[in-house]
Amino acid sequence: MLHTGPMTAGAGRRSQATLVFAKGGGKTVLTRQTVPYPFHITRLFQLHPQKPDLATLFLQSASGGLYRADRLGLDIEMRGEAHAHVTTQSATVVHDTGASPARQETRLDLASGSLLALQPDPLVLFPGAALELDTRIVLDRGASAIVTESFASHDPRGEGRPFESISIALEITDRSGRRLATENAVVHGEDFAGPSSPLGSYRAYGSMLILATEAALPDINELHDAMGAANCLGGASRLPNNAGLSLRLLAPDGGHLARGLDAAFATAFKALSGLQPGRRRK
Predict the structure, then answer these.
(1) What's a Gene Ontology MF term here (predicted)?
(2) What is the pLDDT of residue 143?
(3) With contact defined as beta carbons under 8 Å apart, do 257 and 249 qualify?
């Protein structure tokens, strides 16, 4: 999702981006944006003429991947009735980080009536890559969101060398601070992609949160059909405290994973917005 340039041993880039969406004049607009290097954003696109209050934004960077000790943060605030689809331009490479993992922190604040679809392209974990992902979501009653997270293991030399590790932390709370759902996991590359991996030929993983009221949620069987049609092994389950749905996908490679996530995303997006996602030209 984010890209930084190569760093010297022990160094790392610190950067924090902030986006605030609000509804004004019948459209969703950016009322505040802080996008220091390596972040870059496009203008807002209106890809759904029948729904002008739904904006699409591409989060970009021109650098070459995540490197050791990088610390990057993204805060998105959705004010009441704002609707936005935030995506990325391409997959992100995470390079060998040595003994200093890279870290990405995502903070989402969703007001009642807002809709955020956060759909970054998959992370590509190179041999030796260690990455920490930390996502915190504040969800008002009546807010909706789709949030995806995914990664694939890849050795550019074709020797089957694994990434080091990826840790995933998630917390969803309501506005009062009551915890709705949490997740903490650590996956080591040797376990995920090594010759003794219980996952067999699967080398890519994805997850999706669909946060909404019960009446707005997509049909679980439709989600399963969408993932299966893309040759992904997937499953959906209900989150605690009526927070929504959680999806998990396994795929043989990043390409199949991206197609499976896109298919599930389209099903979820239509349920929450009433529309098919606009074509993302990349």
Answers:
(1) nickel cation binding
(2) 98
(3) yes
